[in-house]
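Hi there, hope your week has been kind to you so far. Do you reckon you could talk me through the fold, stretch by stretch? Thanks so much in advance, here it is.
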Amino acid sequence: MTKAKFGSLLLLFQAILLILFVVFVDYGDEILPESEQESNQRGHAQNFPVFQGIHVMTFLGFVMIMTFLKRYSRGMLVHALLIGALVIQWATLLQGFFTMKNVKIDMSIRRMINADYAVLAVLISFGALMGKCNSLQLLIVALFETFFFAVNEAIATKVLQISDHGRSILVHMFGAYFGLAVSRMIFSRKVCMSQALSMSNKTEMYAFIGTLFLWVYWPTLNASFAEGPAQHRAISNTYYALAASCVSAFSFTVLSSKEGKFNILHLQNATIAGGVAIGAIASMMIRPWGAIIVGIIGALSSVMGYKYLVPALRRHLKIHDTRGIHAIHGLPGIVSGFGSIIAAILASENGYKMSLYDAFPARAPLANSTKFKSIQQIALHRNLEPFLPGLDRTAAQQAIFQLAGVGMTIAVAIVGGLLTGIIINIRFFEPITVRDAFDDHIDFEETNCIDTASDIEFDDHDDEEKFHDSIRGHKRLLDDDRHSDIIADDDNHSVHTTRYEEKKGSIANSIGKSNASINKINRNKLSASNDDIERNHVEAPKEEKAKEKKESIEMEEVKGKEDEKPLLDVSTVDVEA
């Protein structure tokens, strides 16, 4: 019944999105045919590579890195693509409502980039929920999270005007704590201890491929909202922070292991933690050595978070984090947030020159002020893009607003996540059961070929052919590993086994005729084989007995002939001789 609800709601929501797009969304000036200005063409050339990089990160990097579960990798890939496509449309509308002009949302590449950031926040939250929510629940989580994300982003950027070019605060931190809050509301001790929560060498490899994509494209993510020299700083700072984070992650994972070995989860995530940690300060004047320090701190927070904090959240706060998003997005996001506070205090016009207003737009002078007019003249003289008026904040004021942005983001994420978790726990959404957790078999038709044949099509065919074709669609379900989950209780560590009796019954009914045919064939073959063996054992002694009897008869005949010969006549013997 869940799939029927899911399919109906999905189609209904897509229809609503279509109507809203018809009413509110249209091409922006830079996309229209008459847009031939040099500035617009230059904007296309600059924005498209950024959009391409973020799009690859979203639907290859962030999705692939979450395919680490042995029995849920396929489900994660499918749900990420579906939910991502839905959130792109939903986020375009919600974000556009805060910036619309003349009751119209202008479509542009920059707006598409913002929509991809919303998808990133949702996918980050899914890391804590993967395997514990069905399709319908994930749909509801995506819809509510996108709404809270758009509201928080609008307040932080339009009202507080915080600086977060890499979106470590507004995306990574928000997605992490929203997902953790939802996970708290759906917590189940037995589900969290399921044996299905396991990895394999193949899924670990797929996840690490996602890490490589993220590691390569992360500078694009952190530099997407920066311009001019600030964009160059964002790229170089992220570049060296990732390098230091990668090296440090390998070191920390070995040092934290009792056996001195690599932990694949640490390597998949802590190697890119430096990109998250430097996101909010990527465009600031922190120097290359400062970027390396931030990368090392990011890797350390990720490894220590995985080893100590993630298990502690489960034991003490009943927050189960499937992917460990608190260690890869939450803690490094906090590092980035507090780093932005320190950088805001230290920022000055002597160090930044004109790029200060790119890094901190709110520090630009007020409109129509003498200072603002002089800055505009300098920008015009140097062929720079004109600056927008700001709020003329001081360094200390900007630091306070940065702190307020971090606190507000965490608060909105937690409150929104708790409310969403309460909603998806309603019986209408049919929460997932223990036996179906971390396993995607409930989401897919269990076929392993394109064309499967039914029993009816083979009523007039040979039994062997019928069996061969009718079991193809059930081969995967007959795997013993998919029919038992060992659930360990965290209190008494008792272990008990549960079986999928209902699924076994349905499988038995569907292939009952085939099993009967096989049993018949096997019995015939076994009977024939036993007859041959018995005949061999019986016929061999008969031949030997006949042969012995024949030999005994021949010997008796010879003996009888010898008895019939006349006795020697003594009188005829030549005595003299």
User: Anything to note?
Assistant: The radius of gyration is 38 Å.
